[in-house]
Design brief:
- With about 425 residues, the protein is α+β, with helices and mostly antiparallel strands.
- The chain is rod-shaped, with a radius of gyration of 56 Å.
- The protein contains twelve helices and four strands; from the N terminus they run H-H-E-H-H-H-H-H-E-E-H-H-H-H-E-H.
- The protein starts with 19 loop residues before the first helix and ends with a helix.
- Strands 2-3-1-4 form a four-stranded antiparallel β-sheet.
């Protein structure tokens, strides 16, 4: 059988009965080329930088800076030593209230409130320009201490006469003050380029903090008892003035108490008048049965005359001319009344002063050094391997993120 004699064959892609030769003779339809995968462009040298360029970039931006930082920290960075100290500020413990939610709620914020506030104030003071100035008055010049020629240029204070803001920022970078509210303990850490300098600055700052607490106590005591002391001084001066007036009155009048003197004279006069009445009655009785010239009558008459003279003298001394005695008694009573008021005022002012002193003592604070500043033996900075490793990891992460962003931008531009 020849090709021309073959019957028509069935073909899945041809109509029934069509010959293969007819299918071969028919023109073929053009098949569009398959879309090129997107990732193929990144393997084309014209669209993506070669791997060598990526490696050079990683070397320049990550590896070399990390190695340079490690070499700098190992060979040139100056060691920094840290001296630590801890202190607490305590007050007199107040009496705890009776158990109860309301009582604890009311008394809770007051317990240790003054000490906590003063601890925050001391913390702010130790990190303030006033502390820098106070250190200088104690012979510690912060600028000279941290601007040394033997310290590397990246760590030292790079100005001989820095601005106040620059000096304060650098100082706060070397001095750390951390107050723990739960424990009530404040930790003071000072870093310097020699162990002795770190310890010296820490000791000086500790003394400055204690001095501030003492100054707070002095001001609190002065403010608390100044007014009470002033009132007591005024009451005491008034009382002394009135006592002086009473002394002068007694010297002039010659009587310690004119009222009691008049009262005594009045009693004496009443006694004499009673005796005079009895003697007159006896004289009248004698004259009834004796002659007037009898010796007994003469003696009794003399006795009556003497008693009358005494009563007359007492009466004239008690009343006096122009009511002088009454005026003396009135003046004396006024002085005594003023003395009583002044004495009561003095006692009240003294009690108020004692109460103010007790309150001031309750508000008194105490600065207690828990841990003395020590002399460090091992530097806390620099830490070359840890710092270089952290820098290497950080730069590697930044490089990876940047490279992914750059690849995304190139892909977007290619599309």
């Amino acid at each position: 059988m020849t090709d021309t004699d073959r019957p028509a064959l069935d073909h899945p892609c041809l109509p029934y009965g069509a010959d293969l030769e007819d299918e071969a003779a028919a023109p073929r339809r053009a098949v569009p080329p398959a879309a090129e995968p997107a990732f193929a462009r990144y393997h084309d040298g014209s669209d993506d930088p070669p791997r060598s360029r990526r490696g050079l970039a990683y070397l320049a931006l990550v590896a070399v800076p990390s190695v340079l930082a490690l070499l700098w920290l190992l060979l040139f960075a100056s060691p920094q030593y840290q001296s630590r100290t801890e202190y607490v500020i305590r007050g007199i413990e107040a009496e705890r209230p009776a158990p109860g939610a309301l009582a604890e709620l009311i008394a809770g914020p007051q317990a240790g409130g003054n000490a906590a506030r003063e601890a925050e104030v001391i913390k702010d003071y130790l990190l303030s320009p006033d502390a820098i100035a106070a250190l200088k008055t104690r012979g510690i010049d912060v600028v000279r201490l941290y601007n040394r020629d033997d310290v590397d240029v990246l760590s030292r204070l790079r100005f001989d006469r820095p601005r106040a803001e620059t000096l304060l920022d650098y100082y706060r970078g070397k001095v750390d003050v951390d107050y723990d509210k739960d424990k009530g303990v404040t930790t003071l850490a000072v870093r310097a380029f020699s162990p002795s300098d770190a310890q010296k600055v820490a000791q000086a700052l500790l003394q400055l903090g204690e001095g501030q607490v003492n100054a707070f106590n002095t001001r609190a005591v002065d403010a608390g008892i100044a007014l009470a002391q002033k009132d007591m001084d005024a009451a005491q001066a008034d009382l002394l003035s009135i006592q002086g007036a009473l002394t002068q009155f007694r010297n002039v009048s010659g009587a310690l108490d004119p009222a009691r003197q008049v009262e005594g004279e009045s009693g004496q006069m009443l006694a004499l008048q009673g005796q005079l009445a009895r003697e007159k009655a006896s004289l009248d009785s004698m004259r009834g049965f004796l002659s007037p010239s009898a010796p007994q009558v003469q003696v009794q008459a003399s006795r009556v005359a003497a008693l009358e003279a005494q009563v007359g003298a007492l009466r004239s001394g008690t009343t006096g001319p122009n009511q002088a005695v009454a005026q003396q008694i009135n003046a004396f009573e006024q002085l005594r009344l003023r003395q009583d008021f002044a004495a009561k005022r003095y006692e009240s002012a003294r009690a108020a002063l004692d109460s103010a002193r007790v309150q001031a003592d309750k508000q008194r604070l105490f600065f207690v050094s828990v841990v003395k500043p020590g002399l460090p033996e091992k530097p806390v900075k620099p830490r070359p391997w840890r710092t270089a490793f952290a820098l290497f990891v950080g730069l590697s992460v930044a490089f990876a993120i940047g490279w992914l962003i750059l690849a995304g931008i190139r892909e977007h531009q290619a599309d």
